[in-house]
Amino acid sequence: MVTDDQPAAGRGPRGSYATGQARRQAIVDEALVVFSRTGFHGGSLREIAKRVGVTPAGLLHHFADKEELFAEVLRQRDEKVRDAAGDPAEHTLIGQAKRVVAHNQTSRGLTSLYAIVSAEATDPEHPSHTDFAARYRTRAEEAEEILRRGQEAGEVRDDIDPALAARLISAVMDGIQLQWLLDETVDMVPLFDEFVQQYLNPAHPS
């Protein structure tokens, strides 16, 4: 049944809040399905509302517009990836990256969303253009510093340029997940492990 999502008469405030939060999350979950298939521009609020069982007006009761809904989908995606990566104080950069690769292979919807949106966001007019440019820049800066510390500790090869390697880590992760999205027989985990072993890990003496 399609509804406009207004509170039912006589329903207590606590029940109304819980119902509203559940409906809001259902909207985000269905938006993920739609955006991960068609991207931001192709994603229709009408289709998302239909999948949830509310009217477009009912959907807009929870989110002001498509941009706000899209931002919430990305926020929840980022939160799940951070949870998979673990606490930066407890894991090395390489260890975190490996955990993210393994997590992405179990989360096709989230992985597809990121691949599609990062490509779409190359358009300066895309609502996530500035955010994604900043993501890659900040990620590279943070990774460069961690790699430098890794070199000092003997955990990372000392003959690589940390600034270049920081960008390459993202490039490799993005590239192998795109191949996996095209062909699920591709196993991302050993591919990334091979990159780490051959490019980042210190060479063992013969």
Q: Which secondary-structure class do the elements indicate?
A: mainly alpha
Major sheet attributes: none
- How are helices and strands ordered from N to C? HHHHHHHHH
Gross morphology: elongated
Key structural traits:
single chain; 206 residues; mainly alpha
Protein topology:
Layout: H1 13-42, H2 45-52, H3 56-59, H4 66-85, H5 93-104, H6 108-120, H7 129-152, H8 162-182, H9 188-200
Please give a quick description of this structure:
The chain has 9 helices and no strands. The chain has helices spanning about 15-40, 45-50, 55-60, 65-85, 95-105, 110-120, 130-150, 160-180, 190-200.
Account of the 3D structure:
This protein is an all-alpha fold and 206 residues long. It has helices at 13-42, 45-52, 56-59, 66-85, 93-104, 108-120, 129-152, 162-182, 188-200. Helix 1 packs across helix 4 (66-85), helix 1 packs across helix 6 and helix 7 crosses helix 8. The radius of gyration is 21 Å and the shape is elongated. The model is unreliable at 7-12 (pLDDT under 50).
